[in-house]
Design brief:
The chain is built from 13 helices and 10 strands. By secondary structure, the chain is α/β, with parallel strands linked by helices. A hairpin with a 2-residue loop joins strand 5 and strand 6. The longest helix has about 35 residues.
Length: about 475
């Protein structure tokens, strides 16, 4: 009974026997930490635990490499979404600027010939009536304001204090005309006598006074102040590109460039430096301009026919504004200025009307040149803040001009010339320029009459005949 008994058949062959049987099974530290269940200790079992094992809250789940891969994929996806929103090739409507599409349509002289102070023609009756009504309304409003101001001033003289509004309305009325307004007189007086050869012109306003803006109202994405500022930019552009004498006949382009969005300045520069009749690079699509070597302004006054300005929201980031006005310029050949000193407007007009040859400068009649400009603008919030705009569409009707004239760099007005027969003198009141037909013109394809003062018709058309009332 002293020692451990051996099996009857003896000990296992080559075996260590006993406790050496499980030597190949190693429970190292990593194996123990990886175990998901753990047997309760003796004290825990005695404490009344209902289970004999517990589930360990180990760091199970995805390995670190898988977690890092998922984070990388998520970051790449977020980057792709961000770059899609900030796409560098956004459409022009929300991008830097749009390209200008322009068309200049010459209107050759009609049966009335070239409108001059020696060959007077009437303005359209509907235009005169509209301008007269507008002038009368403006005069009535001015008279009413003056009466209100006078009443306020009388109250102040008797011991009352005039309001700021009343005192502000006195000065413009007094400075505008220097005389009481008459209901039958235009709102703007002081027309250059040069326009006396254009019956009905006394009812047309002069310059910027004829550019009327609509009331500014907010849109879905543009505030009242933004709309008002956008309309002011359009007004400034119209004044610079249609009324500025330095732009019209002195070759200045900077006064127009300053109102263009930076994205359009390159196209504008190309149009001025290399004008081409390709509907993209016509300098005359951006502004009204005449060749200083051929044309001079007989007066710096410009008549403006009643027109319109309208606006609407194109999308959340673009306000579209349209304008449609017709301007009447008084022009003379530039060679007159070199022949003798430029006379005063009154003296020039008087000599022209009477037909007296007081000097070389008055030998040629003054030409009345009509230009209708139908323009479309886009303004983004950045444009409005910077006082800029984008001119996206421009249609110009201009006459009297030959249909085959190149108007890409300068508008080409026609001037009366001496008859080849020599029967009529150069300054004769019956002098007319022979209309230059279109190269492909034929009796069946003669251009129709186009009235540049009729804004009820679309401005885009083919070369036509300038319609003036006989």
């Amino acid at each position: 009974m002293g020692g451990r008994a051996e099996p009857p058949e003896g000990g296992p062959e080559g075996g260590a026997g006993g406790e050496d049987e499980f030597r190949s099974v190693v429970f190292d530290e990593s194996f123990i930490r990886a175990a998901r269940i753990q047997e309760l200790s003796a004290s825990e079992r005695l404490s009344g635990a209902h289970r004999s094992v517990r589930r360990r809250s180990g760091r199970g789940g995805l390995p670190r490499q898988a977690l890092a891969l998922m984070l990388l994929i998520g970051f790449a996806f977020a980057t792709a979404v961000y770059m899609g929103v900030r796409h560098p090739y956004a459409p022009p409507i929300t991008g830097a600027a749009a390209n200008l599409s322009t068309q200049v349509i010459p209107l050759q002289p009609g049966p009335a010939g070239i409108p001059t102070d020696h060959n007077p023609v009437n303005l359209p009756p509907s235009l005169v009536a509209s301008a007269s009504a507008s002038a009368s309304a403006s005069a009535s409003a001015s008279a009413s304001a003056s009466a209100s101001a006078s009443a306020s001033a009388g109250g102040a003289a008797s011991g009352g204090t005039p309001s700021d509004g009343a005192s502000a309305s006195v000065t413009p009325s007094a400075s505008a005309s220097g005389a009481p307004a008459s209901p039958s007189a235009p709102a703007v007086v002081g027309h250059d006598p040069i326009f006396s050869g254009l019956p009905g012109s006394e009812y047309l306003p002069i310059g910027a006074t004829g550019l009327n803006l609509p009331n500014a109202r907010h849109t879905d994405h543009f505030t009242h102040d933004e709309v008002y500022a956008a309309l002011q930019v359009v007004l400034n552009y119209l004044k610079a590109s249609s009324l500025d004498p330095d732009v019209l006949a002195a070759g200045n382009t900077d006064d127009v460039r300053q109102y263009l969005s930076p994205g359009q300045t390159e196209q504008f520069t190309d149009s001025v430096d290399h004008p081409t009749n390709d509907q993209r690079h016509l300098a005359t699509g951006w502004m009204v301009r005449f060749d200083p070597a051929k044309v001079r302004l007989a007066t710096q006054q410009v008549l403006v026919a009643p027109g319109s300005v309208a606006y609407h929201e194109l999308d959340s980031g673009t306000l579209e504004v349209t304008s449609d006005y017709t301007f009447v310029y008084a022009l003379s050949p530039a060679k007159q200025a070199a022949a003798s000193p430029t006379p005063t407007p009154s003296a020039s007009a008087s000599a022209s009307v009477s037909g007296s040859p007081t000097g070389t400068a008055t030998a040629e009649p003054v030409v009345y040149y009509a230009v209708r400009r139908a323009l479309t603008y886009w303004l983004t919030p950045d444009d409005i803040t910077g006082g800029k705009l984008q001119v996206v569409d421009s249609v110009t009707q201009a006459g009297a001009t030959s249909c085959d004239a190149d108007n890409s760099a300068f508008l080409q007005p026609l001037f009366p010339v001496q008859s080849h027969s020599g029967a009529q003198p150069k300054g004769s009141s019956s002098a007319k320029a022979t209309p230059t037909p279109h190269p492909s013109a034929s009796p069946s394809s003669t251009p129709g009459a186009v009235d540049p003062f009729d804004h009820s018709r679309d401005a885009w058309t083919m070369c036509g005949q300038l319609s003036w009332v006989l």
